[in-house]
Fold each of these.
Amino acid sequence: MPELPEVQTIASDLNEVVGGKIIEEVAVSLAKIVAGDLDRFSSLVTGAEIQSVVRMGKWVRFNVNGVQGPAVMLAHLKMTGQFHLGLWPGDSDKKNGRWDVHDHAAFRLKGQSPDLDTLYYRDIRQFGRLRAFDLMELDEFLIQLDQGPDPLTVSPEEFYKRVTARKGRLKCVLLDQTTVAGLGNIYVDEGLFATGLSPVRSAATLTKAETNLLLKELRRILNASIKARGSTTSNYEGLKGGGSFQNVHKVYGRAGEPCSKCGAPIERSVVAGRSTHHCPHCQPPSKEKSQA
DNA sequence: CCGGTCACCTGAGTGC
DNA sequence: TGCACTCAGGTGACCG
């Protein structure tokens, strides 16, 4: 589900609402949602104070100060992961909450208002994962993950180098989190449309001017989406509600509708196994951009 | 190195 | 109503 703007929204909502809170108790109702050893996870997280919550690519990163020192909890939401507040799951007592079918982990927070004392992780399709590390383990994990730089902060030179170092099709290269980390299907389609680049163009053939423009357009779109709290199509929302950026998508989810630049119908195709939306007139596969 | 396909899951939408 | 089928914002494994 979520890409960079949505994860950014989720992380900053969390930072505001649970930053500074202490995790008093952890419960996991679906063991596979925690990657690695569950006891290790619980011992790292239980009793820890949440210092801050930030976005790292498409990961939500909780920086915590645990009983045995600093630690980090990472959440990858994949398609349908969400965080929401509720009541600690209990039994008969009316004051207790209940597991929803799709809630898989619960964190009881100290100092939270008594009617919403628990942060739940919910995930309809169960693709997402939670993991926890001490700082040594985190280093190892991040090396193995090999995420690229953030598209919002990467330098144009670095972006040019990373994109053109790859022989694959532009769309695949941008979706690959080792190129840059945070783009997904929606924002790649939107960025390519805004730049007039074909999704199937070989990444290695891009000029410096083209990658510069692509980066500029991606940033413009990502920042506008962050302002709108992201795009809501089905299963996404932050702690404080969903976003509205889907209303200004130019190509994503608009197959058959007229292109906003030239009026030609937007085409849907499949690239890299992902549904891909582009204007065949404004984004021709040849090297040259078509300027009417 | 590269692309294609499947697998992981549930639910919403569509067409018969 | 019901059933069969397709699709979904992500990634990782496997195969040729």
Amino acid sequence: MNNNRLSTYQTIYETVRRIPWGRVSTYGQIAGLAGMPGQARLVGYALHSLAEDTDVPWHRVINAKGGISQLPDPDACLRQKMLLQSEGIRVDEKWRINLELYGWKG
DNA sequence: CGTATGACGAGCC
DNA sequence: AGGCTCGCCATAC
């Protein structure tokens, strides 16, 4: 059910919005749900283009290793970490998250 | 319209 | 176990 009218990024955003509260997903997972398996890069790039006031829970998207990708801006990393902790998700000192516990099954 | 880039993933050394 | 390289494709210039 992909709306071709929507841009690839828009499709990714819609998929990310489906992540329930207190759960996290990976770029590859989002890419697969968005209908473009293997294109995890596009997911990351799409989220990269998001604004701070977006309604997309971009902070719930992490890499396949279960860790927060360290963005060029350390401030953004810390913001994501705090957002995740606000949802009851435990973030390791090494910016790692237990996907077995918080991973979204879809 | 061709080149470069990029919040990744998986494989290989 | 950890670090490096290649691949995939949409967007930017």
